[in-house]
Amino acid sequence: MTRRQELVLGVLGTVLAFGACETVARAGFVRRSYLPPASEVLVRAVRLAGDGAFLDGVGATLRAWALGLALACAIAVPLGLLLGTVPGLDAALRAIVEFLRPLPSVALIPLVSLLLGSSTSAEVTLIAYASLWPVLFNTVYGLAETDPLAKDTLRAFGFGRLAVLLRVELPGTAPFIAAGVRISAAVALILAVASEILSGFGEGLGIFIAQAETATDGTRDVLAGVVWAGTLGLVINGVLVGAERRLFRWAHEAPPARRQSGPGRQEAPT
């Protein structure tokens, strides 16, 4: 299927979903206070683009998202390289990693709030914790998938461990790391909005949604905020997918046998 066909089908699916929501609301199957027509929600979402206070909140959410994701990458990539290249360290830390990985970040909100207070640093910490794992595991998996013949060739010519890492392993792992960053970006956005809703940190898109929830007939504003969150996620994913295809075109154009073990297969570990 070509990209154009994918785009057309995506637009068609969106239009059908929009029409179904509009029909259900207009036909009175669901009370408007619970589910306003999709057209009203969309109009409200568009009008929010002219609201300076709302845009400041969106900016605060994006800042926390970017800081949390950057912190997660700064920790996960070096740690993943260490775990992937030092088997003893991997064995020593495996139990700790597997213990921490399943812990949901929202369950850590009370603890983080006690330690760091209701501040941006607390939100960034939660985002970094949640988005750490996809990058970490993709880095470890990518190292294991690098070409052993290329590594053996460099060693045969006298190159040291660091040279093999920099010349073969790191370039071969880069597409996997990029895929992990893309997955983590979505996780980070979810945590940014969710932590604001649940804990009331400062300002942000989640704060707007939480405040709209308590307002009279605020369902429309809640859904408009959700539309903004979904749109941000769509744009971020599109930008990262485009960057991946441009920077690592060779990985996406690999033969089918190799593609099965390529970076696209590494979206499961989160």
From TrEMBL:
A single Gene Ontology CC term: plasma membrane
Membrane topology: Multi-pass membrane protein
Biological processes per GO annotation: transmembrane transport
Listed transmembrane segments: 64-87, 186-210, 222-243
Family per similarity comment: Belongs to the binding-protein-dependent transport system permease family.
Keywords: Cell membrane, Membrane, Transmembrane, Transmembrane helix, Transport
Protein known as: ABC transporter permease
InterPro entries membership: MetI-like (IPR000515), MetI-like_sf (IPR035906)
SUPFAM superfamilies found in the cross-reference section: MetI-like
Locations listed in the record: Cell membrane
Ranges where the ABC transmembrane type-1 domain occurs: 58-245
